[in-house]
């Protein structure tokens, strides 16, 4: 799911941010005013998008596929073929349906919206059985660069959450020429494996229970079992999005993406690698070395914090503000949990449109 953040963020979790109510009433999202230092430079002001209720749309229609790097990537595409491109990137344990309301909103504003399944999810497949099922962060980021190449997309707005935020952050940091602008939920999520060896306060460690579960063979076996992994993933949904009143059908639509034959291998490797318990591949060493230095992101950026996500620290993004050196704005969405684009699609889509006008 999410990379462990700075020690300050962990201290906030330890102080009780993780102990959110699981039964609070649904609250309409409220976007906080930009904090001091937010960018107001560049571009013309963007027009407001129409407000739609979460769950207005349920499907994308016909899926597409393209050979891209190590993968045959399954993706949804919405909007005019020659419109400015937005690539929306999902997290774990989610899939492309996190953007099922976001995509048509952006398409109606003239954007060509690409929503790919990440490796190990949905209809995305490895091209070779011999390829190591690697989920280290730079490998996933290079998948998206390869997708852009395969589709003839030189630059795009990247927008994501969870694994998707990390992937978008990495591309913006290492290949800024490919990123027109960035929307990153939870801010700067680039992983430093060595830094993650330091213990956190007990309550913060408790919040990361699934990471430690996945470090065991018992956790691997749970992810390999269709019923057990669905039960586990649904528990994560309920815990990290305590005000999202999703129904069985909504979860079931996403859970089909977990039936990918490489799903368990990819999920387990991702979390073990982040904890320093699994090796990556030498081909990615040069990228990981640069990422370990916490490179700054220079492209125009809006960061979004979901207030009810137990991984969100107080401070309006202060813990990662210094990692963004270009035009910048931070927004906090009150009453919203971890799956921000599906819980608050209008606010997410509006951030995309706004950052494109910085």
From TrEMBL:
The gene is fac-dex1. This is Fluoroacetate dehalogenase. Pfam families: Abhydrolase_1. PROSITE patterns: TAT. Keywords: Hydrolase. GO terms for molecular function: haloacetate dehalogenase activity. Its EC number is 3.8.1.3. Residues 31-51 are annotated as: Disordered. Residues 84-329 form the AB hydrolase-1 domain.
């Amino acid at each position: 799911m999410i990379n462990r953040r700075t020690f300050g963020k962990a201290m906030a979790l330890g102080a009780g941010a993780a102990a959110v109510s699981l039964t609070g009433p649904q609250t309409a999202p409220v976007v906080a005013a930009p904090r001091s230092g937010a960018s107001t430079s560049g571009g013309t002001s963007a027009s407001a998008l129409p407000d739609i209720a979460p769950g207005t749309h349920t499907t994308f229609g016909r899926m597409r596929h393209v050979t891209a790097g190590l993968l045959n990537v399954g993706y949804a595409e919405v909007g005019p073929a020659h419109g400015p491109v937005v690539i929306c990137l999902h997290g774990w344990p989610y899939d492309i349906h996190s953007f099922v309301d976001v995509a048509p909103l952006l398409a109606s504003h003239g954007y060509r919206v690409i929503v790919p399944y990440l490796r190990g999810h949905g209809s995305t497949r490895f091209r070779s059985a011999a390829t190591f099922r690697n989920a280290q962060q730079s490998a996933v980021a290079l998948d998206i660069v390869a997708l852009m190449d395969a589709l003839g997309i030189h630059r795009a707005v990247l927008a994501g959450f969870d694994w998707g935020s990390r992937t978008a952050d990495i591309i913006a940091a290492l290949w800024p020429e490919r990123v027109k602008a960035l929307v990153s939920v939870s801010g700067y999520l680039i992983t430093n494996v060595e830094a993650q060896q330091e213990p956190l306060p007990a309550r913060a460690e408790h919040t990361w229970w699934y990471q430690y579960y996945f470090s065991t063979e018992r956790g691997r076996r749970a992810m390999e079992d269709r019923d057990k992994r669905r039960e586990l993933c649904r528990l994560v949904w309920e815990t990290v999005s305590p005000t999202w009143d999703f129904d069985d059908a909504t979860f079931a639509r996403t859970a089909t993406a977990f039936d990918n034959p490489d799903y368990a291998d990819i999920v387990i490797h991702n979390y073990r690698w982040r904890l320093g318990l699994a090796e990556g591949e030498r081909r990615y060493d040069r990228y990981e070395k640069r990422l370990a230095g916490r490179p700054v992101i220079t492209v125009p950026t809006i960061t979004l914090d979901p207030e009810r996500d137990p991984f969100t620290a107080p401070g309006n993004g202060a813990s990662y503000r210094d990692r963004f050196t270009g035009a910048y704005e931070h927004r906090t969405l009150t009453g919203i949990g971890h799956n921000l684009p599906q819980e608050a699609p209008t606010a997410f889509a509006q951030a995309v449109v706004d950052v494109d006008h910085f």
